[in-house]
Amino acid sequence: xxxxxxxxxxxxxxxxxxxxxxxxxxxxxxxxxxxxxxxxxxxxxxxxxxxxxxxxxxxxxxxxxxxxxxxxxxxxxxxxxxxxxxxxxxxxxxxxxxxxxxxxxxxxxxxxxxxxxxxxxxxxxxxxxxxxxxxxxxxxxxxxxxxxxxxxxxxxxxxxxxxxxxxxxxxxxxxxxxxxxxxxxxxxxxxxxxxxxxxxxxxxxxxxxxxxxxxxxxxxxxxxxxxxxxxxxxxxxxxxxxxxxxxxxxxxxxxxxxxxxxxxxxxxxxxxxxxxxxxxxxxxxxxxxxxxxxxxxxxxxxxxxxxxxxxxxxxxxxxxxxxxxxxxxxxxxxxxxxxxxxxxxxxxxxxxxxxxxxxxxxxxxxxxxxxxxxxxxxxxxxxxxxxxxxxxxxxxxxxxxxxxxxxxxx
Length: 410
Hints:
Layout lengths: L4 E7 L4 H10 L4 E8 L10 E3 L3 H8 L3 H6 L6 E5 L5 E6 L9 E3 H12 L5 E5 L3 E6 L4 E5 L4 E4 L1 E4 L8 H4 L2 H4 L3 E14 L8 E6 L3 E7 L5 E9 L8 H9 L1 H12 L6 H10 L4 E8 L5 E2 L2 E3 L2 H4 L5 H16 L8 H19 L15 H17 L24
Parallel strand pairs: 1-2, 1-11, 2-7, 4-13, 11-18
Antiparallel strand pairs: 3-6, 4-5, 8-9, 9-10, 12-15, 12-16, 13-14, 14-15, 17-18
Helix pairs in contact: 1-4, 1-11, 2-11, 7-8, 8-9, 11-12
């Protein structure tokens, strides 16, 4: 009996999309995969991310554990600094903030790209996106913004929390209030490393929800800089920040100078480094929560489906693995809708263990007042000294058993 044929379109070449392509290629299916990416080339920007829980086992199954470890950011822990720039609380790697597997997003994305771009059944197309989708009983007609058209058995939107494809797949009722802005803006970029820079995530706060962070990179020439502006409540936006981000990078950098030049600690160094940074990127922290991820022959995956602060990368990897596993069971392309429903049934319990943010986060971690900072700092000092955080660790799905599927060698 011949293997079922399956023609797949994946929108987004970040983490979830290429990971899905890898595992789909390990099924018995006669599969053809196109990954389309809006960016004109692979993205080289992004913050430090971590891999936790069942996602670690999946990375091992991809034979990428050694490669991930070799690209570890070298971060040995997290240190919190007071208004004078002095350390008052520290957490070692693996304790809480810094995970055992820390890697830059661009590095992990590159590993997934390298694991798939050499496969004969996977092709990458950059500088294009989906304009429209038309679902039929047996396939989906796709029109691309570049003008071309094609037909697929399955369409997967893995184009991030601000996905443009999500609204082409899901019903308006499902989409309503699904994108939740957390009231925090974050800028990421690289700055020159100094000989005195520790291999620690340095976390400094100032009143009005301002924060400056510096984190080590694997290379010895740069450090990762993070500038955060947190509003007093989730959902609240700052018109001046929104306007600057809409206008572009130069206006955004100018705005950050105005907000943070008197913030203290390493503000001068970081802002000067920002001016010369070629990898500058600023985004809005958000959570995506949907009551339904699938619709017929199409679905949303990764951050496009369930952007979740702190565990988004692990969820993206785990969801890609399980989706590919459920699709591996189909007898023909007619079974795709049922396989997508089964995927959602299997993956929802794991997602449920990880979806909720800590109460009051991120505002509680980025106070607006000096008094609020003192309270937070006192709590962090106490927790770091007593190791009480170990009593509340969890939420990474460590106790969740990954389903077993039949894979082939590639």
